[in-house]
DNA sequence: TAGATTGTTAATCGATTAACAATC
DNA sequence: TAGATTGTTAATCGATTAACAATC
């Protein structure tokens, strides 16, 4: 509703990180933090932290710092963490099952409501209380269970096909763990977790050539 | 050996992505590609692609484009993908086992040689042919098996402890899947895969406020 | 040769840092 | 009040885009 100036992608990524550190400090019963202290903890310049916070609001107290509960609330609101996002997993293989077994997402308001697969041997099984359902029932399940996010954990050769099914079923966001990029219409949002990109980046960093003085 | 001007982090990430697309084109028996075509496929401007390629060498052919096999080799070399990187997994829980079950890393020269855990029930088991070993044997295993990369898949409360053990054992790179950031000396390289950061970014993108016209 | 596309420089755009007045 | 730290503007730095001469 308010007129927001656009916030850059780099700032968004840092905001998600601030949020983690804020929760950490919260659990240690810290009540207030300065941009200097937070910057020291996170390896980010105090100046940049203030720029980031001011990009989404104005909630510091001059001469004191930032109240952690306000900070958490403001960043959480901005990132959309104030509401529940129901998720489903497409592909009940190793990775899909691992994600279903992890309770951390549920705890922060991102519960996994079902896994979908085409393998008849898997259908009907429960993983950590979450049922594996036949892919044929995807569309109605999404509608009836208020599903926002589809987690893609399928093999390369059927990634786009599964994406199209999700889009057709009205999904709003796709968390893509598969090895390929996907094409979606503009109103569907995609976040990729690409293991290969990540591993190859690590490889580069470890490269001797790079590490010359 | 050559004097390399530093290549920016954004360029590195894109290079890993080019590499994926090049392999894809390779498998379709394409032999040559122009920055224009590749840019169209990847949603990156041709100009930026040429800048990226020229940051690591000079291997296009004016009027024609880039030979895919040269391109693959040059980028691969630059990223350090020309040699085998032996890996181990710390923490043989769900995620650790899932990674061990995935053969894709092995195929590109990043084999997982062992999993480590402290749970006696797990020790001795094999996952996809990879043994789960007692953490006590970590140091000697790293030395004797030429291990480069440690994959961290442990719970928050022992992440830093495990990191210190890895560092002490002489690991060169850490692929960190745990929920917290870690501290390492400068000569140890870290690449984080933080699910929470990624999920929260997706949450932001799906946020209505952001999607106002 | 003519056409296409690179390699590279210059121009623009955006993100980070520095600095400091405002103020708690 | 004095000290501390924010909010914000200006300066710097870096990354992307545009343009075009070089050349295959």
UniProtKB/TrEMBL annotation, chains A, B:
Keyword Cytoplasm: yes
Chain residues that bind NAD(+): 91-96
Ranges of residues in domain CoA-binding: 80-181
SMART domains: CoA_binding (SM00881)
UniProt-listed Pfam families: CoA_binding, Put_DNA-bind_N
DNA-binding region: 17-56
Cellular location(s): Cytoplasm
Taxonomic superkingdom: Bacteria
Quaternary structure, from the entry: Homodimer.
HAMAP family xrefs: Rex
Protein name, as recorded: Redox-sensing transcriptional repressor Rex
Organism of origin: Intestinibacter bartlettii
Lineage: Bacteria, Bacillati, Bacillota, Clostridia, Peptostreptococcales
């Amino acid at each position: 509703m308010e007129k927001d100036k656009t916030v850059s992608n780099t700032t968004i990524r840092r905001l998600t990180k601030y949020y983690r550190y804020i929760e950490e400090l919260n659990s240690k019963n810290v009540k207030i933090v300065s941009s200097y202290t937070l910057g020291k903890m996170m390896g980010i310049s105090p100046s940049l932290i203030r720029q980031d916070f001011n990009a989404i609001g104005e909630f510091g107290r001059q001469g004191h710092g930032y109240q952690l509960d306000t900070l958490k609330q403001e960043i959480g609101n901005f990132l959309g963490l104030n509401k529940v996002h129901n998720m489903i997993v497409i592909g009940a293989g190793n990775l899909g099952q691992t994600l279903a077994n992890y309770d951390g997402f549920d705890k922060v308001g991102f519960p996994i409501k079902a896994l979908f697969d085409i393998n008849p041997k898997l259908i009907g099984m429960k993983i950590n209380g979450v049922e594996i359902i036949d892919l044929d029932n995807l569309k109605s399940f999404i509608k009836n269970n208020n599903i926002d996010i589809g987690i893609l954990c399928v093999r390369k050769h059927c990634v786009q096909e599964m994406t199209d099914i999700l889009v057709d079923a009205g999904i709003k966001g796709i968390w893509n763990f598969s090895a390929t990029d996907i094409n979606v219409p503009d109103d569907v949002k995609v976040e990729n977790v690409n293991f290969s990109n990540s591993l190859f980046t690590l490889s580069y960093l470890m490269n001797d050539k790079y590490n010359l003085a």
